[in-house]
Amino acid sequence: MEFRQSSKLSEVCYEIRGPVIEHANALEEAGHSVLRLNTGNPALFGFEAPEEILQDMIRMLPRAHGYTDSRGVLSARRAVAQRYQALGMEVDVDDVFLGNGVSELVSMAVTALLEDGDEVLIPAPDFPLWTAVTTLAGGKAVHYLCDEQADWYPDLDDMASKITDRTKAVVIINPNNPTGAVYPKEIVEGILDLARRHGLMVLADEIYDQILYDDAVHHSAAALAPDLVVLTFCGLSKTYRVAGFRSGWLVVTGPKQHAKNYLEGLTMLASMRLCANAPAQYAIQAALGGRQSIHELTAPGGRLHEQRDTAWRMLNDIPGVSCVKPKGALYAFPRIDPAVHKIHDDEKFVLDLLLREKIQVVQGTGFNWPTTDHFRILTLPHADVLETAIGRIGRFLSGYRQ
Ligand code: PLP
C-alpha cells in the first residue's frame, strides 16, 4: 500500500521552508555551519523576547491550561480592539479572533470565503502563504504586479485589469514581505477604491505595521475604509519578536451586516480548532499594553535600522545587483540584472549558493515573482554578519554561470 499526498497539494507551493532546506540540513549534519537567511525568525538572530511579556506569560501559565473561547480570551481581544480603536476604527471585542499566528487565521479566513474557482487578487511578489492557502481552498490566486521601478508599489492598472466576475477579495501586504515597501496613502486608497467599485473583501496583512524605517508612515486599510468589509491581520511574531509563541489576531471591520453568513462560517472554523494556544493568548495583553516598543530598534542608530542600511548598501555594491531601499519589515528583495548574470533557474541559483557559500536565501519565484532575477535576504542578522554574507554572495555571483 502506497500513501500519496492529496492531489489538492499538487499546485501548492511554499518555498520559504522548501526543498533547499534538506540540503542545508545535510550540510549541517556533515559539520558545516550554514547561515540561514530564509525565515523571518527574530529569535535566531539574538533578538530576545521582551521581559514583560515573558513575565506575564509565566504568571498566567498555571491558569492557562484549559481551552478558551474559540475567538480567544476576552482580556487579549479587548487589548487588540483598543489598539485599533486608538487608530479611529470602530472595533468591538466580538470583531477580534485570536489565532495560532497570523498563518492560521489567513488559512481560516480564506477557506471560509472561497467557492471552487473564486479568484483572489494577491501581490507579486507575495508572502507565499496567501497564494498557497487560496489554491488549497480551491480558489485561484491572481497576481497583480508590484512595480520595482515605483518603489515596489502595487500597479493599480494591472490590478484593475485582473478583476473578473469571479474576484472575491484583494490581499494587501503592507509593509510588504518580501520587498520592504510601505505604501503611501494614495496607493492604499487606490486599492480600496477598486475593492469598493467591484464589491471585494479586503484582506489586509499588516503584521509589520510597526516595523518602519526613515519617514515611512503606515496607513491601515481598515482605517481608510470604514465602508468596506476589511479583515486586518497582525500579531506578536515580528514586532514583539516571539514568533515561536504563535500568537496573532484578525480584526473584522466595516459593514458586518453584509458579511453575517461569512462570519458564521469563520466562527465555525474557529470553533473546529477549539482555540488558539492559551498561554500565547495571555502574551497579547502584556505586549500591547506594555512599555516595550520596537521603535528603538527601527529608529536611526537602532539595530534593525543599521542592518537594513548595511544590507541595502552592500547589495547595491555588487556589480549587476540593485535593491530598492526597504522602508519597512525585515527583508530586502534585490534584483540580479539578467544582462550581467543570466539566471535561468533561480532555485538552482539558491542551491548552488548554499552548497558553495553555506548561505541560504530564498529565490524570487518562491514569492510568486514571475521571473528568475530576484532573491530575498533577511535584514535580521547583525551588520557584521550581513556584511560578510553579502560580500560572499557578491564573490559567488562574479564567477557564477548557469
Ligand atoms: N504575513 C506575513 C507578511 C509574514 O511575513 C508572516 C511571517 O513571516 C506571516 C504573515 C505569518 O506570521 P505568523 O508568525 O503570525 O504566523
From TrEMBL:
It comes from the Bacteria. The keyword Signal does not apply. InterPro entries: Ala_Aminotransferase, Aminotransferase_I/II_large, PyrdxlP-dep_Trfase, PyrdxlP-dep_Trfase_major, PyrdxlP-dep_Trfase_small. The keyword Transferase applies. It is an enzyme of class 2 (transferase). Its cofactor is pyridoxal 5'-phosphate. Pfam families: Aminotran_1_2. SUPFAM superfamilies: PLP-dependent transferases (SSF53383). GO terms for molecular function: transaminase activity. Its EC number is 2.6.1.2. Residues 34-389 form the Aminotransferase class I/classII large domain. Keywords: Aminotransferase, Pyridoxal phosphate, Transferase. Belongs to the class-I pyridoxal-phosphate-dependent aminotransferase family. This is alanine transaminase. The lineage of its organism: Bacteria, Bacillati, Actinomycetota, Actinomycetes, Kitasatosporales.
